[in-house]
Amino acid sequence: MIKNNNDLSVYNTLTRKKEIFKALNPPRVGMYVCGPTVYGDAHLGHARSALTFDTVYRFLQYLGYKVRYVRNITDVGHLENDSDNGEDKIEKKAKLEQLEPMEVAQYYTKRYLDAMDAMNVLRPNIQPHATGHIMEQIEIVEQLLKNGYAYESNGSVYFDVNKYNNDTHKYGILSNRVIEEMISNTRELDGQEEKRHPADFALWKKASPEHIMRWKSPWSIGFPGWHLECTAMSKKYLGERFDIHGGGLDLLFPHHESEIAQSVCAFGSEPAKYWLHNNMITVDGQKMGKSLNNFITLNEFFSGSHPKLNKAYSPMTIRFFILQAHYRSTLDFSNDALSAAEKGMKKLLETQKNIDRLPVSKTSSIDTAPIFEKCIEAMCDDFNTPVVIANLFEISHMVNQIMNKKESISEKDRAELKENFAIVFNHILGMRNEQTDDSLKTMEKLMDIIIEMRNKARAEKDWATSDKIRDELTKAGISIKDGKDGVSWDLM
Amino acid sequence: MIKNNNDLSVYNTLTRKKEIFKALNPPRVGMYVCGPTVYGDAHLGHARSALTFDTVYRFLQYLGYKVRYVRNITDVGHLENDSDNGEDKIEKKAKLEQLEPMEVAQYYTKRYLDAMDAMNVLRPNIQPHATGHIMEQIEIVEQLLKNGYAYESNGSVYFDVNKYNNDTHKYGILSNRVIEEMISNTRELDGQEEKRHPADFALWKKASPEHIMRWKSPWSIGFPGWHLECTAMSKKYLGERFDIHGGGLDLLFPHHESEIAQSVCAFGSEPAKYWLHNNMITVDGQKMGKSLNNFITLNEFFSGSHPKLNKAYSPMTIRFFILQAHYRSTLDFSNDALSAAEKGMKKLLETQKNIDRLPVSKTSSIDTAPIFEKCIEAMCDDFNTPVVIANLFEISHMVNQIMNKKESISEKDRAELKENFAIVFNHILGMRNEQTDDSLKTMEKLMDIIIEMRNKARAEKDWATSDKIRDELTKAGISIKDGKDGVSWDLM
């Protein structure tokens, strides 16, 4: 138990300030986060979004909330300005590979989830697929037509942005944009001549004859617009109004702005009370992303197989790297930063192992509790994970002081230290040792045997044997360190 | 390369005989298999079905076919006689746990897939969900109504079994049953009074007000009948006519019989050319299953946490146990049989390891090629895995003879033996060593160090140390064996 007198405050993009978090229906919290489009491998940017909201999910649960966390899988209808011409990205890939779109989508979904599992990202409670909710999307289009905020044009249906803005004055409420700005960004594209206004966006698109992802609707055989799926699925699993909507900052406009427009005009209310956005990963100052083709996939990080990488970085290293920055700051990729993250992570893993080995005294000369309280305080301040990590390094220093007998700790305090470290490091930050338990245990036993034999050799002043053992271990990728209280070892 | 002059023959439940397999559109093969209903943990029966068709999938690919393998996830509408009253199993569980049905379904889907992954069951190319294909199911109901083989009654739609049978004479084509037999099995249940004939089955059910899984349809707000999803999803991903339809023998009737009825009446053709059914797992002679409540879940097997189990059995042990019986025979569960399977599997894993260590000679005194040819021949004979395994034990014996210098093998033949063993054991049977590569490699290096030190102790006649090392290793769960060519070790 770590004492906590702080309220949780979160930065709400909608109000542009930090607010005290008040759940709509405590102790339940509904959270919807925009998930991946599954037509390719996830990159570091995807990891950041997933990890940010994994931390939010973990911390809300730590505070006692019962969270229903929904993160969608976009497997159809990703219509951005770039591709508002009816050719959606998944279908493009499927044609290329001569595969069924669902097969491509499931292949990449599995790879995405495997990468998330490796980074210890908890599975959301529900991961609904866009293609599994076509009926629900059609119903919302019908509602929008009925309410007068959509119009049919040549078998497609568009959202009427002008009417929405004139009636509600809510256009730009989230992104702070104005319609004029949007128009100037719009290029001449197929389908534009069907729209009343260039800022209007597709709710339903009529499929061209060769378009293979297609469903029946009252307007045409076609497919839903991209913004619609999140409105349909968040409503289905969380209700018309829910607590938190999250996603990457790149989704702020037009995606999230359009979601608000759809909800306001179909249901009469904005969908989410709090809008949270994680910032981007940059590479040499530019956003890392598919469209810029400067991205490194997660599997490339895990294997080191990308020219920009000096070496492989484990999933937990990526996690730690991302958590070392606040989610609303940009985070620049570099090998140096990743190597530093790896080193920092190993130090904290070592600290956690050392807590068990700490010599205990009758009394404690130090008090670790206030530092853990600062960790919770930092989390309550808009999920400030870098401050949490800085405090854990403080703990690490204390543990070393106790190891070196410069400070002392009682058995009871050591037990509390152990528990609190696990709460913050493992449960809230989601860090874990990447070695599996079973193999680690066997390895530990083998190392016990080897270290004992080395000790014996040293006691007998048989330096040749003792040096040989060290050399062989180095070759096996294991470093050993002789300390005051015996020998410790680590995988290099 | 293993020589093969055999055609593949498969037992077709539809014709009740073994037939030469001829693909409809070679080299492509479409295969649909009924997957799990995800309202609880998978048990040994689910494993058998998945493993049977995994073996079929693997072997078809070995023969050079390009297979699209579709296995559905039933997450709604499992309407059997027992629950033909509109209360479907998933919803029941969801209410009980106060969870969203999709959350229950995704929770158990993940557990199912994790268990399948652990048993090295390859993921099917497409795993479609019933709830994701409601529109496609509604379209088939419309077609059946239009063709006169379905009727609406009080907002629900039923399939007209009598009319189907009178028009096509196809009723019982698969299961060999007659309508009278079915009627006598039918109990008086809610909804029965809506039917024209007790044998009629639901295509669409009107939802009662408290029923939370519900979709709009032309007839009512409701949900589709269980048999319909497989017709809709096999058609969508494989076409109206495809090569293989598989499933457990318990699905023969009414499920598969009803699928045929639906396809014949909606599309004018039977869906699959070959119907393959795996037999049941029995416990003390009774079928293992949810309805009999005598099942042991896969996770219970993996952890040993069920009163009927003497110990834990690893996923690969379960795989080997199931492959040791032919898929069309019943397979009785017992601890003895599982322990025997574990022993047999370890022997073959050991054999595979030993192939690398075989001493090579200028010439070979034996020829392993014909035995591998027998393996392929057995697989071509309706996937006769037990005969394959018997032949691998033959190889195991030969390898031991070479180890013991009673036979000899050339370097070229050893390379071929190694390759062929991997083809049959790893690729076709899907067996693998459960230790992960990385931890195994480190462990091997540590063991090298330990064994070298033990050898040194023995050379110096320091028996105390050498015995101590053996004892410590035993405690660590590792057995060592002194052989002619040095020391070998194994995890116990």
Describe the model.
The structure is a homodimer. Helices cover about 45% and strands about 15% of the residues of chain A. Chain A has about 500 residues and is of the alpha/beta class. Chain A folds into three domains: about 10-280, HUPs (Rossmann fold, 3-Layer(aba) Sandwich), CATH 3.40.50.620; about 285-430, Orthogonal Bundle (Isoleucyl-tRNA Synthetase, Domain 1), CATH 1.10.730; about 440-490. In chain A, the strands form five sheets. The first copy, chain A, has a four-stranded parallel sheet with strand order 4-3-9-10, with helices on both faces. In chain A, α2 (about 90-95) crosses α3 (about 100-120). The first copy, chain A, is elongated and about 90 Å long. The relative contact order of chain A is 0.12. At the A-B interface, α3, α4, α15 and α16 of A face α3, α4, α15 and α16 of B.
